Amino acid sequence: MVKVIASGVRKGNVIEHEDGKLYVVLKAESMHPGKGTPTTTIDMRRISDGVKTVVRYKTTDPLERAFVETITHSYLYQDGDNYIFMNPENYEQIQVSGDMLGESAPFLQEGMECQIALFNGQPISIELPQRVTLEIVETEPAIKNQTASSSFKPALLSNGVRTMVPPHITSGTRIVVATEDGSYVERAKD
What we know:
By secondary structure, this protein is an all-beta fold.
């Protein structure tokens, strides 16, 4: 265990909470108000049973960070509610539950390299690449004389996820999407 201050906690970190159980951090936000005490709000999930909780700390509160081994794994396939990954160095396969992947599951692509955090050999969190390239299968046609202002239009991606894209993007276009929230980043360069 390593001591860290609350403002130093990041998504994917594993911390030991006051109840003695391990939690994986889903989101950590620090607030620095003009006056008053700066605080860090941490959304986390208990590893043992998946219960989610939100806790607010002072930014300087000490927390125990558990030692977690992070290993690169390649995504192989989906098996029911589980996703199968392989360690490319020793070819061992591990199962990751759909609950752990959450809303990022549709962004998995065969052969994609993901960072899986292991605690005592069990997967506790997974981090996908920040960006993925997908094709647009359906969107409204571009409207002539429409300026490229901040107007976006809905589009359906090849993985079934809906996102908003600039007006000049058409069906069949390959785009880069952020895996964290499914938002449009840029047109693919390939």
